Amino acid sequence: MDYQRIFILLGLAVTAYLLILAWNEDYNRSPVETDVVIRSETNTDVPTTELPLPAAGMDAAPSTAADQETNIVPELDVVPDLDPVNPTQPVQQVAPDTGRLVQVETDVFSLTIDTLGGDITYVSLPEFPNSLETPDNPFVLVDPRNSYSAQSGLIGPDGTDNTSGRPLYTTGSHYYSLDDKDQLTVVLTLPDAGDGLVLHKEFHFTRSDYLIRINYTVENQTDKDWSAAIFAQIKRDGQDPFNMDSNLMGMKPYVGGATWTPDTPYQKLEFDDLEEELYKGRVTNGYMAMVQHYFVSAFIPEGDGENTYQARKLPGQDIYLLGFTTPLWTVPRGGIDSRAVQFYTGPKDQYRLQEITRGLDLTIDYGFLWWLAQPLFYLLTFIQGYVVNWGIAIILLTCIVRLLLYPLSAAGLRSNAKMRKVQPQMVRLKEKYGDDRQKFSQEMMNLYKKEGANPLGGCFPILLQMPVFIALYWVLLESVEIRQAPFALWIKDLSAMDPYFVLPILMGISMYFVTLMQPEPPDPMQAKIFKMMPIVFTFFFLWFPAGLVLYWLASNILSILQQWYVTRKIEAGG
Hints:
Blueprint: H1 3-27, E1 101-105, E2 110-114, E3 119-131, E4 134-142, E5 149-155, E6 175-177, E7 183-190, E8 197-206, E9 211-220, E10 226-236, E11 256-259, E12 267-269, H2 271-276, E13 279-284, E14 288-292, E15 295-301, E16 306-313, E17 320-325, E18 329-331, E19 336-347, H3 350-356, H4 370-387, H5 390-421, H6 423-433, H7 437-451, H8 459-478, H9 502-516, H10 524-541, H11 546-571
């Protein structure tokens, strides 16, 4: 029996299975029609209708069932209507002077703030076109079509967000632009905060940064202490993004929540799980994020206090709210104080996310091999910094990986060469002892021993390479840097499939030549299966991102060259 061939087939099958399993886990989800709400269970001054769970130590009172089914933020009737016939059309911006809406333009944002509550209701990213065909149409991340918004406010004894509604702020302008400045501050003021009480909600923007600092400043000139807690939450429905990339196989990226705990640095909060059970936890620092392919929005608390995190389905509605409430904050009479939360909304930039808070970079989901995928990503970006072209960087990364793994794969290459060398003698043994399988196996093992060929010699190194393949799969599939990155000629986007299927076909041809350089299995059924592998993999790779197919093609070519080199040496007696 050809044990080497069995192990190679097993390795390829395991690799294909793991790739399919990993893809299906995050890229073949069906839309889930569920809702989530963060709601209050306690609070005396603010009955628990639609508010987040108060922080520890806040005055409490039991809530009613009717209260618990109210959403914290009523649907905004100022969101522009979209053409229902063409739901994928660009989201039309509301004029800066329209009603409550404030327009903010920076070098990385086009953003809308509603002065009712001071929520961020729209964010587009001009540096990321929605598609290559419409380069002037920016990618919309916080999208009103998905009921998507970033909400924050004050709850508690003296909170401004309560059952009577959201606070209506005023501002000096309905249009703000960063222009040539490095910093931009948008100040919202609550005119009726109370006698002797001044309250500002400030949005701080920095050039070339997707992190927004939302700061509350309270000037308390009353005769009593002022107390409240900040809540911050992301609101979104459970449907797929309107501008989500898709292909003919209907693969869908993971869309859902994520948070951090000391035991689980990246914990997914999937919509279907939240439909069944409330998520709640108390964590120091951390984050609450809404994740989708290549992009993420996340609220991050400031300070070292213990924050109450919660996420839940809103009964009867397809709306999710995921967020946290900070500890109770007190401003003594005659005092002035500020508290802030941070809101990141933009691309999954590993380096920037690492700087913001612990674990936020793990929203770039490299799967269970993240510990291997991250170094590969750093190496890929390092190479790209010199060669500029991501396709060339992928090819060079493939060369480096193959060279690093050569000591492991060399044994398998030598074993293949020796097995191929004894192939004619194997054919003669099969003809001589074809009807006596026991005698044939005995003579075959004697031949292996005489020629120094080990049918199992290359199997273990080949299996060792499988984690690298899978880790690179995640790197090329999850890294926003590869999104819409061109290579050459007809390949305009390495993150999308080859529109003409040229790379998959070339990959299949290269895999066919790889099989030709292997010793043919003596078992006819094994030989047929092995010859079918290039066809199967070609079909499997037709819809894969061009960057991943390019890697596999380059890897096959290097395998052919390495096998040719080793075979020549052995045939020459080396």
